[in-house]
Design a protein that fits this description.
The chain is α/β, with parallel strands linked by helices. The chain has 19 helices and 14 strands. The chain has a ten-stranded mixed beta sheet with strand order 6-5-4-3-7-1-8-9-2-10, sandwiched between helices. A hairpin with a 5-residue loop joins β13 and β14. The protein is globular, with a radius of gyration of 23 Å. The structure holds 2-deoxy-6-O-sulfo-2-(sulfoamino)-alpha-D-glucopyranose and calcium ion. Calcium ion binds next to loops.
Length: 530
């Protein structure tokens, strides 16, 4: 109470943060929240999958902490961002899918920081309409944003900027930090578009990443036996549902020559649109790398089996996807150097995460949405030397739901009671002895692109129970210890009947605790059944 009164007095008498910054540096750290889009943990070398090298992101783990079981509550872009801002599940904040409107008038953690003397900025992808609220400065991409020479909306004004999106997003972030009012602490949300589809790398990374061959996951040729309808009817298989032009970069003219049909109606338009944004010089570099790849494909195509084609498409996918990760990693490197050069590295919390995980060929898939591990989980690394001991690794079941409370906690501010997440600060300084033993998940965007059925469920350390509903009513249960790749639904296996009952009980508890219900599910169903 004493301390409360004192800070309160300080606020009223000295409305600037000058004192607070000098005297209480540790109490009001700066925050850089880095979130990329669709960055699966498999594509960060600190997670040990051996696919690529991300030395700069890895530094956060080396000098701070890495969470190996961080998850999202709804594995989709805009809903994940809404959860980040509000600290509430999708059915509470209203942004259940990419289509629903986000109500910026509701409270969010940036507004709270701002009200309490922080300077705040949002740079990069947000994927929501309307002027962002809670930020002194915003420079956001429109909708999904573009890779080359992208448009930004800077404090409400649209502007096209020459360059590569990940580099520009980094430039703008550093620029804003450099020009900030140094008497106040700051919080910047530094949101990369990459490595989102259609996976267009920076020109400087094309040669290196297109020359590599990547190891295939052992379930690349998954036939979806052993699971229910949802896995079988999803449209995210690399062989069957990927775009030839937009995704694999086969020029539309070559598609025609080879008789390749568009899977999505905008495939060729996407390719033309993406490459049409390049200058002649940029395009020449692009062509010098991709033309030989396409010439080689043209020669081989008619002799390729379905398996060959799957393998080829997987390699193409990985080359471009991991190529885009490289510039994201460069950006993190630049940020860390910048903080150091400006004496900010000790008192700035740096968080790296993604809006969700992603399939990099596991189950034969790309995209996300499912409550299965690769898309439920998301990378999470955090560095803050003042409080987080270097080299920690945590298996705790933290979620994106926890970001808002955690950031407010570090900022020394009160966490609103209606936020549903929990600060994980105590997990990192050793003060938290008890953490949740299960996470709750919901997904709504169906019918829609990729056709992943509506579902909700619960994951504990060892098990996962999922309910698919709406046009099917199916349950799935996985034993993550025996079957980490989730190949076999054991819901109806005799030996699992006790586990099944326990998991149902836990799920009911979670739904009650987080205030979700069948009524909510119904409320969000499409108005007209298709
Ligand atoms: C686009 C992509 C999808 C992707 C959604 C949502 N198709 O529609 O593959 O699932 O975005 O992604 S594309 O052909 O237009 O690239 S999200 O990350 O924004 O949720
Ligand atoms: Ca995303």
């Amino acid at each position: 109470l004493h301390h409360y009164i004192l800070t309160f007095t300080l606020y009223t008498l000295v409305p600037s943060w000058a004192l607070a910054q000098k005297g209480h540096a540790k109490k009001h750290p700066n925050i850089v929240y880095i979130m990329s889009d669709d960055h699966g943990y498999q594509a960060i070398s600190a997670y040990g999958y051996g696919l690529n090298e991300t030395p700069n992101i890895d530094r956060l783990a080396k000098e701070g902490a890495i969470f190996t079981r961080a998850t999202v509550t709804n594995s989709l872009c805009a809903p994940s961002r809404a959860v980040l801002l509000t600290g509430k599940h999708s059915y509470m904040n209203g942004k259940i899918d990419n289509e629903a409107k986000f109500d910026w008038n509701q409270d969010n953690f940036a507004k709270i920081l701002q009200k309490n003397g922080y300077q705040t900025a949002l740079i990069g992808k947000i994927h929501m309409d309307g002027l962002p609220q809670g930020f002194n400065h915003s420079a956001v991409l429109i909708d999904q944003g573009e890779y080359y020479n992208p448009n930004f909306i800077i404090n409400g004004v649209k502007q096209q900027i020459q360059g590569y999106v990940s580099d520009l997003t980094t430039d703008m972030t550093l620029d804003w930090i450099a020009k900030r009012d140094t008497s106040k602490p700051f919080c910047v949300l530094y949101h990369q578009k990459a490595p989102h589809r259609e996976w267009l790398p920076a020109l400087r990374h094309l040669q290196q990443y297109t020359s590599k061959t990547y190891k295939e996951p052992n379930n690349l040729f998954d036939t979806y036996e052993g699971r229910g309808t949802a896995a079988k009817t999803a449209e995210m298989n690399i062989l069957k549902h990927m775009n030839w032009a937009g995704d694999n970069k086969i020029p539309p003219a070559l598609m025609d020559e080879l008789g390749l049909k568009e899977y999505l109606s905008w495939d060729k338009a996407a390719f033309n649109g993406n490459l049409g944004r390049m200058t002649a010089a940029q395009r020449a570099t692009w062509d010098s790398i991709y033309n030989p790849i396409m010439a080689d494909f043209k020669m081989k195509y008619h002799n390729m089996s379905k398996e060959d084609l799957m393998r080829w498409r997987y390699q193409r996918y990985m080359q471009d996807y991991l190529g885009t990760v490289a510039a994201v990693d460069d950006g993190v490197g630049r940020l860390l150097e910048f903080l150091k050069d400006n004496g900010l590295d000790e008192n700035t919390i740096v968080i790296y995460t993604s809006d969700q995980g992603f399939y990099l060929g596991e189950h034969g898939w790309f995209d996300k949405r499912f409550m299965y591990e690769e898309s439920l989980r998301t990378p999470l690394l955090i560095r803050y030397p003042a409080e987080i001991k270097a080299g920690q690794s945590s298996k705790a079941l933290v979620q994106n739901l926890d970001f808002a409370p955690t950031i407010l906690d570090y900022a020394g501010l009160t966490i609103p009671k209606d936020m549903q997440g929990k600060s994980f600060r105590g997990l990192l300084n050793g003060k938290e002895k008890q953490w949740r033993d299960a996470v709750y998940y919901t997904y709504y965007e169906y019918p829609s692109i990729h056709m992943v059925k509506r579902h909700y469920g619960i994951r504990t350390e060892r098990y996962k129970l999922i309910h698919f509903y709406y046009d099917k009513d199916e349950w799935e249960l996985y034993d993550l210890e025996k079957d980490p790749q989730e190949m076999q639904n054991v819901y109806n296996v005799q030996a699992y009947q006790n586990v099944r009952e326990e998991m149902h009980h836990k799920l009911d508890e979670a739904r009650a605790y987080y205030k979700d219900s069948d009524e909510n599910d119904k409320k969000f169903l499409p108005k007209v059944k298709q």
